[in-house]
Design goal:
Largest sheet: none
Number of domains: 1
Order of helices and strands: HHHHHHHHHH
Mean pLDDT: 83
Helix content: over 70%
Amino acid sequence: MSRTAAIVLRQYYLMRGNLSRLLSPVVWVTIDIVLWGFITKYLNTVTSSGFNFVPALLGAVLLWDFFSRVMHGVSMAFLEDVWSRNFLNLFASPLSLSQYLSGLVLTAIATSVVGLIVMLILATTMFGLSFFTLGLMLVPFLFVLFLFGIALGIFGCTIVLRLGPASEWFIWPIPALISPFVGVFYPISTLPQWMQYLSYVLPPSYVFEGMRAIVLGGVVSGRGLFCGGWLAVLYILLGCWFFKRTYQRAVRTGLIARYSAESIS
């Protein structure tokens, strides 16, 4: 645990030494909540159906931003070592891959919790969105998104480890690429059939379908959330296996010693 804690401590020192690293996640979630908050308020004023768009749209934005913060929390911690070319220093030590990944995950937990608190405060005080009325029902939704965010974060780290630092731009659009398939703002039934097949294997689909059911006064499918949770755990295991195989290949081929900002091989 001390080695895992050392990875977290390194990230803490980096954030403490650079204010932009600390403010960046807070600033972006603030912009998203404020922008979508005013959009939902406007939609409430121009529609006569009586439907409240705040929990439907702003709630979806909050959950999706939380997922994105988790994923980027893992990948950003990894990229700090990429940018500083710190891999040889880390893995010349007794540090194991599991300890390193655990440190990245704990870092993501800390940064995502801070972002979640900021989003909840803004959404509640400015736009009247209250997730607290859900009570413990909110926990499994956040947990599934958290697990899948960790899985995608590890997968993104593996891409950069395999292709080189110049491929980091592959990581940033991943949440945007999968968002049409998981029904963040609309039911999965809206999608064409071939897109629905992909939705069934993405854990966030079960989260947003469940949240929509609550907003519309329906019943949450416990089976759906259970499937989403197991899928997320499966993706974490696959991501760890993929990262380990890629790291072993980088060591075997000597790529890790030639790691530079331009290498893609």
